[in-house]
Amino acid sequence: MGHIDHGKTTLLDYIRKSSVAASEAGPPSIAAGEAGGITQHIGAYEVDHGGKMMTFLDTPGHEAFGKMRSRGARVADIAILVVAADDGVRPQTKEALETIKGAGIPFAVAINKIDKPAADPEKTKNELAELQVFLEGRGGTVPFAEISAKQGSGVDKLLETVLLLAELEDITADPKTFASGVVIESHRDPRRGITSTLLIINGTMKKGEYVAAGEALAKVKILENFKGESIDSASPSQPAVVVGFDKLPPVGAEFKTFFSQKEAMEAARRTKEKKEGGKMRDALSPGGEPVAIPANIRLGIVIKTDVLGSAEAIEHEIAKLKNDRLEIKILRAEAGDISEDDVKMAASSTKPLIIAFKSRVAASTRELAERMNVEIAEFEIIYDITDFFKKKIESILPKEVNRVILGHAKILKIFPAKGAVKGQIVGGKIIDGVLKRDAAFELFRRGKKIGEGAIENLQQGRISVPEIAADNEFGALISAKTTAADGDELEVFSAQGGSASGGE
Question: For residues 343 and 18, what is the distance between their CA atoms, to the nearest angstrom?
């Protein structure tokens, strides 16, 4: 865990490549495959270090993936906090540290990029001390290693440190019981169906058993390791891929395996009842009456992504852009390709929008979206979605108008307009402030607003002037839909455009 671009995925790349036999081709680079050079999903990878198996969860560094990162810490036994020696402690370093402490798990520090010319490990250690992270040898007990993930120096020492930490913590599991753990990722495979990556925390999963993950069910017919290789069983701390769920298991949901389908179905039923009970409680106010749901949804959004964790991250980004002047409703957020049903659901809102993050759109679906005036915005990088939404909200909202009151005047006489003059010619006296040519005004009669308009021309005596100050009489040509009368008052103001966007 750690700040973006501090080398977490590069470190994992090196560990994975160095863990395979020299005769084998190394696994493909993870970092090279991530759009924009950032980790966008939680990946679970198993490596062999000196005959001891270790599973690494590669958690995203960008703050949009805060919930995913938190989930990664919760299911991990040990965390590695990666801090770049040339950049030091950064905002997401602090967030990661808070997540680690909140999860209550032991951790080691990897001071990375010591090969860089600007590297300053001692400065980094001092910055960590300011966060109450006291390293071994500096008056503390937190183990650390200085490494270069790019060159591999110090990585072996880091792994030995992690294994030693695991021994000290006495982390155990029972491989003889049925498997239980957490859903790491879920997606719809167009060829194989719904596929999920499960991290086994306790017990052993075997082919032929049944698994209940949240409300989702599957018979374990296809069981694979993280490389996609078929396996007969998966033991504690192993990431396992199960194919064939009847619905998408929620990312972060707990799963359990059972001997019979009946037991698995009963577990899924209990989860559903618990979930529906929670929704019912949420729908009631403290007094027991249903809470009113806004009927006029201004911006209705359907989110479709390659994997479920990405949809969660996008929801997190959208939540940051809440605006009192615009209602935003997430109509659906799930993994899979965009369907015609998604288009129809989006079309039910006033301003429909579908966000496609690494999700495919069939030609027929795109054609239906065009017919129903549903916008489909496609993305490969999470940052782009935030920028898109800011511009989208700004385009939807009317510009705010900041009114600056210039002055007040009283109409004393109405003069007949001659020839082709459009509007009314009025005479009066300025009570306070100033009157300006081309300024807007609101028209009041006996203290009540009856209309609005603009000052087309302004005269003092018989001379046209740009403005007239208080306590002076004036003559003006005004345009307004409402006809002014003797005794009416003008409140004159200038209008200045403001920002339409909100959020943080």
Answer: 47
Work out whether strand 351-357 and strand 299-305 pair parallel, antiparallel, or are unpaired. parallel
Q: Which of 382, 237, 213 is nearest to 311 (CA)?
A: 382
- Phi then psi for residue 190, to 5 deg, are -60, -25
In tens, the pLDDT along 334-354 reads: 888 898 888 888 887 778 899
% the chain with pLDDT above 70:
83
Per-residue model confidence as pLDDT tens digits over 36-65? 443 345 567 888 888 888 888 876 544 444
Q: Computed over its alpha carbons, how large is the radius of gyration of the chain?
A: 32
The CATH superfamily holding the domain 180-282 is: Translation factors (2.40.30.10)
Q: Which two tokens stand for residue 65?
A: 């993936």
pTM summary value = 0.57
Reading the block at residue 51, the tokens are 């005959």
**Class of the CATH-defined domain 401-497:** mainly beta
Confidence bin at 32 (pLDDT 50/70/90): very low
Fold match between 299-396 and 401-497? no
Using H for helix, E for strand and C for coil, what is the string for 205-240?
A: EECCCEEEECCEEEECCEEECCCCCECCEECCCCEE
